[in-house]
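Why does residue order matter? Because the sequence determines the fold. Keep that principle in mind as you read this record.
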Amino acid sequence: MALSVLMLVNQLDIGGTETHVLSLAEQLCKEGVQVTIGTAGGVLEAALSQPPFDIFHLPFESDDPVHSEYQALITQMKELVESRGINLIHAHSIAALKVAVQVSQETLLPVVATIHGKFYPPRILRGLLDRCPKVIAVSSPVVTWLARVIDYPLQQIALIPNGIDTEHFKPGSKWNKFRMELGVPKEEKLVVVVSRLAWEKTRVVEAAIQAVTNLQEEFPVHLAIVGGGAHLPLVHASAQLANDSLDKDIIKVVGQRLDPRFCYRASDVVIGTARVALEALSCQRPVIAAGNVSYVGYLQPTILNKAWSVYFGDHHWAYPLTVERLTNDLRYVLENSTKVRRSCSQLREWVTANFDIKRIAQLTLEFYEDTLADRQLRQAAVLEKVSWDERTPVSPKPVTETPLISIAIPAYNRGQFLKECLDSVASQTHRPLEIVVVNDGSTDNTEEVALGWWESLEDREGLSFIYLALPHNSGYAAAQSIAYHLSSGEYIANQDSDDLSHPERLAKQLAFLVENPDYSFVGTNFAVFENDITKKKRSYMVRYGFERILTSYQNGGHVICFGTLLFKRALLERIGGLTSFLKGAEDYEWITRALNQGFYADNLKEQLYFYRAHPQQRSRLVKAKRGPKKPWQYASEIDPVQT
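Structure:
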């Protein structure tokens, strides 16, 4: 009896997951498997002509089917399972998996899933995968994430990458219809970005626009942006602004392409990640890899295995994405076209040996057989330490003069603690400093303390002071944002009006940002005290390293103490100040917004900030209104601060 598999995917629109499902289904049919694809359809389906597999339309309408949609999907899927004689259900999205596990329980059919990234909600995915006997991970970082974050048994995970039809994606003429469509002359260069124009991938597109603009004086180079998504209007606007600034039309947004082969072949270099990188390499074109998580750079034969270990920057950290890095890599490829061309055949051989769809289909078929026989996986995954230690250092820009740091201090009824706070700020070793105090409609002596402190301060060298009293209490987000906009420093520091800073806090944070120009904001470790600062306790809230910080916020964690931040003004100019639509979590929302827009952050491990615990502190009041929360955990007392 032939194996009959139901593959589930919400839509068949243009994307790496959808393309993989169709390629895999076609190859499995050639291996004698009966494949039915359950989907709501899409543009890829419309482009198919007489596929060897069956397509059955299911009413997927959302990423989280509930109520009538959920019931309709279950009913129709059960009918489909019975009418097609399905032996196994294979889900490729979380909505499909949600329905599939319920149908599996009612029909006693095994259900498996392919996990295509680390973007799934962990709590929801954990509950669904508990009912899957085995799963496929498409990359090593996804294997690690499933084992450590989702807590799925490692021995039940198979590492099977997405497959490429290397007979379809093969070398071809550079002077093809796509280049003719763009009107790029033979003697001029063409850079092609192929990407979904959504999520963090829009950062890659914006960096490519800036990099190509930077190179105009060195090369006659054009940029074609291929893709669609929610951020398409933003990309159109960015491209138009760049063209206007250059007074020529060298950046074109061409939208989605059902078959990107001709886009790859027409290029002098392709910028992309994941499946795009593999397809372009298979077409024997040079590739610069940049993904959702990080930047990898120009793919040379010597770094292919390392690039694969981070899924070309889509699933794991490698380098920060910066315009400077991308510009330098583009320059190298365009200047060394002969040398680069010689490497391209080796790159195609690597893709053919590891990712050809015939090989991937055979591995998937073995996975199905092992699942149905309830035996140990032949392709069981192993945990690999994914690292990128050999980083190319980025030289910091020379600092010709000591930059001004503005310290933003919102204060509401903080007369009791404000003088001590301001004393710690004035004790900073860094100069010049601009101290900005915004009195948020206090009803106590906050104004008297602030103005009296500045009036009595004897040593004002390198210090300036701005004070603003708001006519009424506007809330933390408004007061903090007003303080930002009153400031004039190249760098801005947060400081809560009831907390204290170590004298070297700002100097050490500034040194980090100068030495690491890819980073835009940095926090520090901190300690907690009540009345006596010599008796303080350590917090375990803070995490270190950009990838760990990013992952924490993606999973709903909060691992940067907002009061400890020092950031570049460019960050404020890009994302703006705090918003108040998440009451009590304004600081979390601002940090998450910055990370989502591609700004890099870290924490210093030294305790350079001292958080005062008292009954009227804002965080306690917020928690009291929300109900009981798990408190921060503290270790034993540590040595008093050295001043």
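The first strand starts at residue 4 and ends at 8.
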